[in-house]
Structures are given as C-alpha cells and as structure tokens.
Amino acid sequence: MRSSATNSAWLRRYRARSEPRLRLVAERPGTFDGVHRRNLSKLLRIVHREGPLSRARLTEQTGLNRSTVAALAAELVELGLVEERAPDPTNRVGRPSPVIAVHPTVVAIAVNPEIDAVTIAAVGLDRRVVVRDRVEVDRLVTPEETAGLVAETIMRWRRGPLRGARVVSIGLAVPGLVRASDGLVRLAPHLGWREAPVRVLVEEATGILTIVGNDASHGATAEHLFGAGMGVEDLVYLNGGASGIGGGVIVHGLLLGGAGGYAGEFGQNRPGIAAAADRRAAGGVLEDEVSRSRLLDALHLKHADEPTLARAIEESDASAVHDEVARQRRILATALANAVNVLNPSVVILGGFLATIAERDRDGLAAAVEAQSMPAAFELVELRTAALGEDRLMIGAAEAAFADLLDDPGRAVAG
Fold it and tell me: Which segments of the protein form a coiled coil according to its record (predicted)?
C-alpha cells in the first residue's frame, strides 16, 4: 500500500486525467414523462432480472401493447442499455419475435473491504461477474486507501478486461453501520472506520457515482432477487465474513432498513449459550462466539477465501476442528431461533462461513433451531444456504449501484 501522502498525490493526479463517467442523455419529447419513464424502467428491470426475453413475452409481462414495447425496446437500444437479438429459432409458433437482452458492456463496480482483503469485481447488468480481484492485506486499509485501490483497479481494467465497457456506478458493501441517507459509514468496528465519508472519497478518486451500503443487506437483496430467496416475501439472511456476522431482513418483499438504515445487525446481539463450556468470550456478542477467525485458528490457517475455508473444514479430520464447528452450530441455532420467533420468516438463508458450518448437517441445525422456536413460528420455516456463493455480496452491491439506472434509464448512461 502507498503512504497517505503518496496516496493523496496519486488521487489528485488520477482525478486530473479521469474522464467523466456519466453523461445526461439529451432530452427527447416524452423521455421524462412519468408514465413513459416508468414503462422504460419496467422493461429494463424485467430483462435485467429475468434475462433475455422475446418482445412477445415482454408484451405479456408488461401488459403494454406490441407497438409500445417495440418503441421502448428501440429506445433502450439507442441508449446502449439493451441489444436486440434474432428470434429464437426453436420457437416455431406464430410470428418470430426479436429477443431483448441487456447490453453486455454495461457494468457496475462492486467493492467489499474486509479485514484481510479488499475484493473488487465488475458485474454486468446481466449479473455476470466479468472480472474479480481479491487483494489480500496484512493490515487494516483506510477509507482513503480503499478509494485509491478502487480507482487504480478500474484504470487498470479499462486497459484490459473492461476495454469498451461502460461503468455506470460503483457499489460498496461495507461490514458496518452505513447511514442510508448519505452513505456515511458511521462505524465499521473491525476495519477501524468511524464517521468515514467513503462514498465521497471514492467518487472523488474515480469520478463515478458511488453507493455505499451494509454488506449483509446487499447479500440479502442479492439472494432475495436472484438466489436462494427468489420468490420469497419474508426471509432472514445472515452473512458470516471476516469482519463478523451481519444480516438482512426481507419483509413483504422489501428490505427492512430501520430508521437510519442500520437494521439487521444480528452479530451484535448477546447470544444465549446453554452450556457454560461453550462460551469463549465473557460478555461477548454473537460474532465473538460464532467466528470465522476461530475456525481459521482451529485449522491453523491465517488467510482463506470462502471456498478454501469450506474445503479445509471438509477435509480436516482433526477433532479440534469438528468440536469448534459443533460448538458454533449450537450457539448459531439459538440465535436463529430468536430471529424466527421475532420475525416469523418462511426462509432463513445463511451465507459465508455460516453456510459452511450449516452444510455439515443442515437437517441437524434445522432441528436444533426448531427445538428452541415457538412451534407456530417455525412451522413454515425452511433453512437454506446462499445460492450465489461468494458472488452474493458483489451482485448485491452492483444491484444497489444499478438502482438509479433501473429506476430511470433515460437519465444516465455510461460515458
């Protein structure tokens, strides 16, 4: 990493030679009309979430007439947000209908700063992870260093895998409390960030619109829209990462934010521990007891990404590893039962290292949760693990980054 002085000078040089990344589309008659804008948004959102669809299918799903769908699709093509493909040759019924798909060059940058690494990825509007870098660190990165690393990575990718791509925006998934109104990181305790204006820092370093949110909330959104929670209206998501445990709650299909945007901090709850021998941190919170670092210690590992950690646990025959996994599962079961009793979800999804310890015996974990839950609250609950794997935070952060574009495609497109 650069020193703070070197980093600041580098940021100034980068900003001086950066080109604007966003431009406003010239206003056309009707472009910003409310109904037209909503219809344009609806069409783009459908192909973003469901993938390529024929104009005939889009006509059915939107309830609009064929000529309106054709005009909207043509406008999105002109904006460079979708492309029109030849009709599906296997569909021989009726008149062939062109297929509409999001344009593969439209991407958002997703960033997840953690205590042991900063992960940066480019995610397409079609949800493909185009390129990903995991930069391992041996000390905590500052908000300024994070901004510099993001700017440097984007500049390097523009000469390589993102040559010709259009970066719409940047989404940060931060393990901490993020104020919803302006993206200020109030507290990311494991990173040592307090009242950190990371959104402003990244925007200044890159010239690109930036959105900042809690990592687990982004994970909950991704799994709800595209993963294990698709079609589920009420779910609880818990994410286990290097910085502890966070969570997200979907209620009636919407992410529960709370008054300031801080809802879902399950990791800061005091766990109920039935056996005194299971306690490791006197007066500790859930993430002090159910901990990735404790698993790494049992495995005698310093660093590991999610697949490496899962593989190491699966392949280990050490009793210390098996005992630590079993201890964490017992405490996790109580925490999940409390969430079930309070929130009455139909699905509970576990991501990160929580998914790894759940998969050791998912039925056994579910039985332990049921034993501590109110019968009526648990009767509809299904315990699942994250379907998007290590992509979930990247996809969730990108979804937040794409939000403005999806809401109003006629306003801002990549420059």
Answer: none
